[in-house]
Amino acid sequence: MDKIRKQILLTLETNSRIDLKELAVLLGTDEVTIANEVAAMEKEHIICGYHTLIDWDKAGVELVNALIEVRVTPQRDQGFDKIAERIYNYPEVSATYLISGGYDLLVTIEGRTLQEISRFVSSKLSPIDEVVSTATYFILKKYKDHGTILANKTKGERMLITP
């Protein structure tokens, strides 16, 4: 990947709303070059989408997020891909990752209540033949998400030292 593309991606990853003209100035090139590179990377699915990170707690919306570790039996000639596809197609699923360790997949979901998430796991995820076991972890508080600090920063309290 050439240098300009990498710089564009790094900048867009932290600020997807940046104006292309501003990005061009930042990277020392012209707006047309930036626009062409971004369009090409969208077409090649290097840039897969643009998202807004929302602190739902501050917005006053009650949402429950959970991480679910899933152990599966991989399918012959398809490995984990087919089962992962089945799982990520559920609308409740935010993300699905193939991971190393004691489990095979990590699934993130959101729901309105703990019970809603529990029902998803017990009625949709666990009954899948290839699913051997699951472990669910509810996210109680987000401190940092996608590189953005969400927690209120505490001011360091220092003692006054006088001579």
UniProtKB/TrEMBL annotation:
Please provide the Gene Ontology terms (biological process) for this protein: response to amino acid
Coiled-coil regions in this chain? none
Alphabetized, the UniProt keywords read:
DNA-binding, Transcription, Transcription regulation
- GO terms for cellular component: cytosol
What is one Pfam family matched by this protein?
A: AsnC_trans_reg
**Which SMART domains does UniProt cross-reference here?**
HTH_ASNC
User: Transmembrane segments in this chain: where?
Assistant: none
Residue ranges occupied by any Transcription regulator AsnC/Lrp ligand binding domain in the UniProt entry: 68-141
Its domain of life?
Answer: Bacteria
Q: Name one GO molecular function term.
A: sequence-specific DNA binding
Protein's name according to its UniProt entry: Lrp/AsnC family transcriptional regulator
Organism expressing this protein natively: Lachnoclostridium phocaeense
